[in-house]
Amino acid sequence: MSDAFVKTLAETVAPELLNEARTRLRTFTKEFEDKYGSKPLYLARAPGRFNLIGEHVDYSEFPVLPQAIDKEIQILFGYVNSDSPNQANVTVQASSSSTYPFQSVEFRWDDLPNLQSGKHESYFKAAVRTVAQDMKSELKEGLKVRLLITSTLPPNAGLSSSAALLVALILGFTYTLSHTTSITPSATEQSIVASAIKSEHAVGVHTGGMDQTISVYGQSCVIEFFPEIHVSPMTFRGGSLVVAHCGVVADKKLTAEVNYNRRVAEVQAASTILSQELSLPPCKTLRQVVEHAYKPNDIPSQIRALESLMKSADEYLGAGEPDVSWAPGALATYGIKDIQSPLKVHQRTSHVLSESVRVLSFRSILQEAQDEGRSLTMDELKKLGTLMNESHKSCKELFECSCDALDELVEVSRKNGALGSRLTGAGWGGFTVSLLPPNLSITEFEKSMKRDYYDQHEDRFKPDAIKTMPVAPNSGASIILMDGLS
Q1: Is the sign of the CA dihedral 356, 61, 473, 408 positive or negative?
Q2: Which residues make Cβ contacts (< 8 Å) with residue 24, sequence separation at least 6?
Q3: Contact 196, 166 (CB under 8 A)
Q4: CB of 110 within 8 A of CB of 88?
Q5: Of 188, 199, 133, the residue nearest 163 (C-alpha)
Q6: 188 burial class (0-12, 13-18, 19+ CB within 10 angstroms)?
Q7: Quick one: which of 416, 454, 437 has its CA closest to 241?
Q8: What does the pLDDT look like over 403-435, one tens digit per residue?
Q9: Could you report the per-residue pLDDT of 218-265, keeping only the tens digit for each?
Q10: DSSP of 179-238, one letter per residue?
Q11: What secondary structure does DSSP assign to 415-472, as a single string?
Q12: Measured by CB atoms within 10 angstroms of the end CB, which terminus of the chain is less buried, N or C?
């Protein structure tokens, strides 16, 4: 396995937080020893994220602008070799300190094919199965792997806890199998991302890849998916970013059939129809339609291509619902049982294409400031805020992935000085992200949000719930060896 993933603790946290992180890790390690009677060998960690702009466009292979955050999932790994036939091959227990209510899980290798959509334990099984398949490794009956898991990520909140979980599991099991078999995997950032995407698809959520990619690479960046995943660092200087929870749970895995997966099917239907109507080769994604129809080679030509395709979408998809008589088979691919409700192909396509224009415009503004080595001007911050506001409106009206609580939180944020505010993540609950001007402190903003939103909706939150938080970029997923807490 590549040593690039093996870090010291000091390489994964800010210097001012190192002592606190060491203390927390020692406590976590002691808990592992108390539960399993042995020391852990290493820690696998992976951060969550928020998405600045570019919602529900990654599975159409359009760029996104996420940032890894300083909230993450951590898993301590240990293993023993035992001939006991009654012991589970994998045992998972949750730390008492975890903000995420993980369930204890036990399973044997021969139970790996038994994945149930939406079930908590399926994530662990999918990760092991994917790693074993990718490594072409035979799982030894005597290998008993012990995990203790904790999280500082709020659960079901749209901050990518499920992707972070899978990335940490895949990284940890890859490291485990590389040290318990004769196989040395050539694990790279790209291969860990691919395995995490494959695993999430296996549990029934047909994600596009943004969440897994940012969890592996970390920091703040532009992620492009066509013709392959490409990550470009992107700095944000000037103004502040704050994420805020609306108080409504956003459990993507439990609502995948009616919400997330249905949207994936709708935009894929658009790709099929438009490639036929425009006499193009078969296209699986709208980005492939853009490439075959227009062959853009820079941001201005990409924007022109998207605007042109929007007109084609209005022409071929907008006059009533298009013929999707072939759709039942496609819907079944995504685990969708309701094949009677019409697909909102034009509506969803309008969001994806207009959102992708907003991403490119947003990126251009950030790139110019970054290239010139300066902070964003007030005029630029206002333009970014407008793009964020337009994004939320599109998510609400065209993609229908917002909810009343998110809409209210966005409005209260703008009322209290945010230049822009929008839902972040899949939606249907969870967090918003707001852009504050330089003259508005995070403390003042949080005070006003408490007064105007959180005090009005105390019934939505547990006493210790995370409500608002400033966000700092976090490093990407890594393995930390336990033979020293340096």
Answers
A1: positive
A2: 97
A3: yes
A4: no
A5: 199
A6: middle
A7: 437
A8: 999 999 999 999 999 999 999 999 999 999 999
A9: 999 999 999 999 999 999 999 999 999 999 987 665 565 568 888 998
A10: HHSS------HHHHHHHHHHHHHHTT----SHHHHHHHHBSBEEEE-SSS-EEEE----S
A11: HTT-SEEEE-SS-SSSEEEEEEPTTS-HHHHHHHHIIIIITT-GGGS-TT---EEE--
A12: C
Q: Give CA–CA dist 188/195, Å, rounded.
A: 11
Q: Give me the count of residues in the chain.
A: 486
pLDDT at site 326: 52
Nearest-angstrom CA–CA distance, 27 and 30: 5
In whole angstroms, give the CA distance from residue 406 to residue 224.
27
Q: What percent of the chain has pLDDT over 90?
A: 75
Q: How confident is the model at residue 206 (pLDDT cuts 50, 70, 90)?
A: confident
Task: Give the Cα separation of 429 and 451 in Å (integer).
Answer: 21
- The whole-model pTM stands at 0.94
C-alpha 100/C-alpha 238 separation (Å) is 33
pLDDT for residue 136 = 82
**C-alpha to C-alpha distance for 141 and 127, rounded to whole angstroms:** 18
Q: Tens digit of pLDDT for each residue in 171-205?
A: 999 999 888 877 776 789 999 999 999 999 999 88
Find all residues with CB under 8 Å of 154, minimum gap 6, and list them.
Answer: 71, 99, 100, 161, 245, 465, 466
Beta strand 478-481 with 42-53 is: antiparallel
User: How far is Cα 64 from Cα 260, in angstroms, rounded to an integer?
Assistant: 17
Asked whether residue 117 carries a pLDDT value surpassing 90, the answer given is: no
Say which residue the tokens 């013929």 belong to: 323
